[in-house]
Specification:
The chain has about 525 residues and is mostly beta strands. About 5% of the residues lie in helices and about 60% in strands. The chain has a 22-stranded antiparallel barrel. A hairpin with a 2-residue loop joins strand 9 and strand 10. The longest helix is centred in the first third of the chain and has 22 residues.
Length: about 525
C-alpha cells in the first residue's frame, strides 16, 4: 500500500510542476502566481432576491468557504440554482462591485470583487469580511476571505495544449468563533488555504481534463492545534470510438488529519453512448483508501446514468452507484462548524445508491421534477454528541429513502416561483432514525419585479423534526423560517438592499444546544464599478 501511495504522490507532484508551465505560460509572459478549494458536501445557498445583483467572480465559492457563520451554521433545503429569465429588467455587465451591509447585533458584512484581462489572462478577484457581536453570550464571530482566479486560453502554437483553457485558483479564508452552546465556550480559529490548477482541452481527437492542487485547513482551539490537508490530482481522458465516447480517469487524494494520513485513490474506465432519444453512461474501476485508524479499504466502483426522452414534455433519468466514498474532515466542517477536531476518518461504502427522476418541461416558463433515491451504506458517518459542545461521528450501516420534488414557474415576466420539497426516511441498522436527518424539508421562493428598479423576494423554509442522538431520545423541533428581501436601484450603479430572516421569530436549533438568531434585520447597498 505504501508503494501505491508513493506512486500517487509522484503523480500529483508531476502534474503540479508541469501543468502551469506548459498550459498557462504565454510567449514572453511568465506567470506571476504560485504554481499551485475547501471542498465539502454540496449545498446550495438560498440566494433569495439576489438574481439581479451584479455577477460575482466565480472564485467566491461560498458553499465551501463560508461555513463558520456562528449563527447560520447549515444551509437550508436545496433550491434549484438556475434562475428563470426576468425580461422586464435588462442586465448590464459591470467589471466589479462593492457591497456593504449592517445587521442586528452589530453585524457588518462587506464584500467586493473585480474582473479584468491582463496580458491574455482573465483575473477574477473577490474578498470580504463579516463579523458580529452575536445574539447570545459567546456567539460573536468574525471571518474573512480573499481569492483570485486566473483563466488563460493557450495559443494554438502550443503542441498539446493549444486552445486549452487553464484556470489557476488561489484563496485563503479565516474564521473565529466560540462553541457558545457549552458553558466553557471553547474558542476555535480556522485558517483555510487552497491552490489549484485545472487544464481542459482537446488534442488529436482526445479530450482531456487535468487538475492538481493543495488545500489545508488549520484548526486552533484553546487546548490544541490540528490540520486537515490534501495534495490532490486528477486526470480524465476521452476519445470518440464509433458511436461511443470511451476513456478513463485517475484520481489521487493524499490526505492527512492531525498528522495521520488517510489517502483515497481511484482509477476507472468510462463509456458513453448518445442516441436520438437516449443517453447512457457507465463508469467502472478500482478504489483504495486508508482510515486514520490505519485500516486499509479496497473497493470496486460501478456507476451509471441513463437519460431517456419519453416525449416532448418528459425526460426520465436513472442513476446507479456502488463503491467507496471518503469521509473527509473538511466536508464535516462544512456541514457542522462544531465538529470535533479529534475524529476517526474512514471511507463509507455505498452498497447501492439508486435513483430515478422524471423531469417535466412543457415550456421554457414552466418546469419541474419528481424522483426517488434509495441508498444503503456501510460505515456511514452519523453525527453523535461529543465533549465540550462539540460533535463527533460514529459509523453505522444506514438505509435512506428520499423523494424530492421541484417546481419552477415563470408566472409572468415579472413573477417567478420556485419550490423544493424533500421527504426522507433514514434509519441505522437497529431501526433507529438517523440523527440530524429531518423527515421532511421544503423551501419556496416568490420573486417579483415591481418595476425596473424595485424587486422583492419572499421565501419560506421548513425543516421538520430531527433527533439529536442515536437512541432517539433528544428531539429537535421542526421550524419555519420566513424570509424577505428587497432591492431598489437608486442609480444605474447603486442599489439599496434590505432583508429580514426568521420573520416569525421561530425557535431554530440546527445543532443541539446551539440556538439560532430570532428575527434578524439588515440593510445595505451595492455599488457596481
Amino acid at each position: 500500500m505504501r508503494t501505491l501511495f508513493t506512486l500517487g504522490f509522484a503523480f500529483v507532484i508531476a502534474i503540479v510542476l508541469t501543468m502551469p508551465l506548459v498550459g498557462q505560460q504565454a510567449p514572453n509572459q511568465p506567470i506571476e502566481f504560485p504554481e499551485f478549494i475547501v471542498t465539502g458536501k454540496e449545498r446550495v445557498d438560498v440566494p433569495g432576491g439576489t438574481k439581479n445583483m451584479p455577477a460575482r467572480p466565480p472564485v467566491l465559492r461560498k458553499a465551501q468557504l463560508d461555513t463558520l457563520n456562528a449563527v447560520e451554521k447549515a444551509a437550508p433545503p436545496v433550491i434549484p440554482p438556475a434562475i428563470l429569465p426576468m425580461p422586464t429588467r435588462p442586465i448590464v455587465a459591470h467589471p466589479g462591485y462593492v457591497s456593504a451591509e449592517l445587521g442586528q447585533y452589530t453585524t457588518p458584512d462587506v464584500q467586493a470583487g473585480y474582473s479584468m484581462v491582463v496580458g491574455g489572462y482573465r483575473l477574477d478577484a473577490a474578498a470580504g469580511i463579516e463579523a458580529s457581536n452575536g445574539h447570545l453570550t459567546n456567539a460573536a464571530y468574525h471571518k474573512a476571505h480573499a481569492s483570485v482566479l486566473s483563466t488563460f486560453i493557450a495559443p494554438e502554437q502550443y503542441l498539446v495544449f493549444g486552445g486549452s483553457t487553464t484556470e489557476t485558483d488561489i484563496g485563503i479564508a479565516s474564521r473565529a468563533y466560540r462553541f457558545f452552546g457549552d458553558s466553557a465556550a471553547a474558542e476555535r480559529t480556522v485558517f483555510a488555504l487552497r491552490a489549484a490548477v485545472d487544464v481542459e482541452g482537446e488534442y488529436q481527437g482526445f479530450t482531456y481534463r487535468a487538475t492538481a492542487g493543495y488545500r489545508r485547513i488549520g484548526i486552533t482551539t484553546d487546548v490544541r492545534e490540528s490540520a486537515d490537508a490534501v495534495i490532490h490530482g486528477h486526470i480524465d481522458v476521452e476519445q470518440r470510438w464509433r458511436a461511443y465516447d470511451v476513456g478513463g480517469s485517475v484520481s489521487v487524494n493524499l490526505r492527512s488529519f492531525g498528522g495521520v494520513s488517510y489517502p483515497f485513490i481511484e482509477g476507472k474506465g468510462r463509456a458513453r453512448y448518445i442516441g436520438e432519444s437516449v443517453r447512457l453512461l457507465l463508469d467502472a474501476g478500482l478504489q483504495a483508501a486508508t482510515s486514520t485508524g490505519d485500516v486499509s479499504r479496497a473497493g470496486f466502483l460501478i456507476a451509471g446514468r441513463a437519460d431517456v426522452n419519453l416525449g416532448p414534455d418528459l425526460t426520465a433519468i436513472g442513476t446507479l452507484r456502488s463503491g467507496l466514498r471518503a469521509v473527509v474532515f473538511s466536508d464535516l466542517l462544512t456541514v457542522n462548524p462544531y465538529v470535533s477536531d479529534s475524529l476517526l476518518l474512514d471511507a463509507a461504502y455505498d452498497v447501492v445508491d439508486l435513483g430515478g427522476t422524471v423531469l417535466w418541461h412543457p415550456t421554457t416558463r414552466l418546469g419541474g421534477s419528481i424522483g426517488v433515491r434509495v441508498r444503503i451504506t456501510d460505515r456511514d458517518a452519523v453525527w453523535t454528541p461529543s465533549a465540550a459542545g462539540a460533535f463527533g461521528v460514529s459509523y453505522f450501516s444506514t438505509t435512506t429513502i428520499e423523494i424530492p420534488v421541484e417546481l419552477r414557474w415563470l408566472v409572468s415576466p415579472a413573477d417567478v416561483v420556485r419550490t423544493n420539497v424533500s421527504i426522507v426516511s433514514s434509519s441505522i441498522a437497529d431501526a433507529a432514525v438517523t440523527p440530524y436527518v429531518p423527515s421532511a424539508q421544503a423551501a419556496a421562493w416568490y420573486d417579483r419585479s415591481w418595476t425596473q428598479d424595485l424587486r422583492t423576494a419572499l421565501g419560506l423554509i421548513y425543516v421538520g423534526q430531527r433527533y439529536a442522538d442515536i437512541d432517539n431520545r433528544r428531539v429537535l423541533s421542526g421550524y419555519i423560517d420566513l424570509r424577505l428581501r428587497a432591492e431598489y436601484d437608486i442609480a444605474e450603479r447603486f442599489t439599496l438592499t434590505a432583508r429580514v430572516n426568521n420573520l416569525l421569530g421561530a425557535d431554530i436549533l440546527l445543532w443541539d444546544g446551539y440556538r439560532e438568531r430570532g428575527i434578524f434585520v439588515s440593510a445595505g447597498c451595492t455599488w457596481r464599478l
